[in-house]
Automatic annotation (TrEMBL):
Superkingdom: Bacteria
Domain VTC: 2-216
Pfam families, per database record: VTC
Protein name per its UniProtKB record: Polyphosphate polymerase domain-containing protein
Length: 224
């Protein structure tokens, strides 16, 4: 978690070291909106709060409020390593899932779709909260590094439709705070490591899902 002042300094340092992600718009950003799911025991939330090193969560994600690309994702965390599984959806499949028709995921020849189907049928995996923010992404080929600045984090509260035109997400984080993520496949080059480091900064968990869930006011930890 960094503040605006730290963000401007780090971004300036990175200027000649990395390049903007090709998927960003002309202003260097794109919009992300995700609908997170959890089961009847709220396992994803409780495991994150409990500090479990190995855990996973499910979400449907869209970009720039468009239905051209709709992805049902499973984010898997094993210690410090992260992997993702993705299943593309069309708008009709998305609407069916949102309306409780999970049979559209019953695809025996598609292991991940079947996993989602069984999670919904057996563990009552259901929509929980919308997470909404603006991302400013940068990439570097050396080490396949990806650095993102996630800004304007908002929550949809109890809304669950990503394409609801009347949805007006509310701020979930002070506007001065930005979540900086540094991801890499092979290694983190020393020159990038030095550029993103500042006195007082340290690696920490900053789950957007947990932050936004705090606004649902239906958890026994909400006022802690």
């Amino acid at each position: 978690m960094i503040n605006r002042h730290q963000y401007f300094i780090i971004r300036q340092r990175l200027k000649n070291l990395v390049r903007p992600d090709k998927y960003a718009s002309t202003n260097g950003e794109y919009h992300i909106r995700s609908l997170y799911f959890d089961d009847y025991e709220n396992s994803a939330l409780s495991e994150k709060l409990g500090g479990f090193r190995d855990r996973h969560k499910y979400r449907i994600r869209v970009y720039n409020r468009s239905d051209r690309l709709i992805l049902f994702e499973k984010k898997i965390k094993c210690g410090d390593y992260i992997a993702k599984l993705k299943e593309p959806l069309d708008r009709d499949m998305y609407e069916a899932i949102l309306n409780g028709n999970y049979e559209v995921l019953h695809q025996p020849d598609n292991p991940f779709a079947m996993e989602l189907y069984l999670e919904m049928k057996q563990h009552l995996l259901r929509p929980r909260v919308i997470v909404d923010y603006v991302r400013e992404p940068y990439v570097c080929e050396n080490g396949n590094v990806r650095i993102t600045f996630d800004k304007e984090l908002r929550t949809g509260l109890h809304a669950t439709d990503l394409f609801d035109q009347s949805l007006n997400p509310v701020p979930a984080l002070d506007e001065q705070h930005i979540i900086m993520e540094v991801k890499y496949d092979e290694y983190l080059p020393e020159y990038i490591k030095a550029a993103v480091q500042m006195e007082g900064l340290h690696q920490q968990a900053a789950s957007k899902y947990v932050i936004c869930c705090k606004y649902l006011k239906n958890n026994n930890w909400e006022d802690q």
